[in-house]
Amino acid sequence: MNCILSARSAPFDVFETAAIEAPPTLLLGMPHLSLKGLSETWLLKECGHRHWLMIAAAAGRALPDFRDADGEPVYAAFCAATIRNAKFGVMGENDELAFSSDLARISGAQFVSLHRLSCDGRVVGEVELVSVFVKRREQGKNRSIARVSLEGLPPIKKSEGFDRAAGVAAMIRSDRWSAHFGFEKAKGRCEAQLRVRPCPSQDFNGAGFLYFAAFQSFVDRAEWELLEDVSAVHYMTIDRDIIYHGNIEPGERIVLRLLSQRKEDHVLAHWFEIARESDGARLADVFTRRGPHD
């Protein structure tokens, strides 16, 4: 089975240097798969890596090594990640997966990448990532991260199709929303919760931050623990929106709160809040629709 991640057919004002011209083909094996198909965690990591490389290419750099005027490292921190119309269950061992992606700069420090997955000629999912440039104001402290501006970046272009996730993230991060994924904000109540202490060797990245791809894995663990009657072993993600608000230091605990859920026609939908246990600061809102893998 040939699975190809290809760019959208609609016209976009994207950076020519940002496109991956010859998508590498990956032979799927155990590192890329979960129990019932393509691993969502692996896919987010892979798309995040491509996003970072594409920003470097758009800036005319061979490597994604960005620094501010003082020589301090600058990172691309994700403020939103979305998955749409996923059918990850159709992929398995020894299938072939190839990638092609597009990138747009939509504000001073904000970039959006779009990635589309198809398999045997049919679309089986789309990933959209939104990032901003950040740096630590205090060395070694993740709570001190702040947005920064850099010189030498390509011009800002308002590109068709690249503003959906960024718009949703802006509304939710600023608390200017009333409903999303069919959940009303005013009706959100903690129905159950799970405390987790993220592991430095598994959940943090090489820059020392709690990795953006770990957030959805925490939600899956919470679903597995708190919603045992759902038979989650047979469920895979169909749609997911992750809106990021903050980060933690290694050693800190987080709390996952189930704020709302519903089940319709064998599809489970839920809204989780991830918060820092020590002060209650919100780290992410995660909206998910999951269903049978086949």
UniProtKB/TrEMBL annotation:
It comes from the Bacteria. This is Biosynthetic protein, Pnap_2097 family. It comes from Methylocella tundrae.
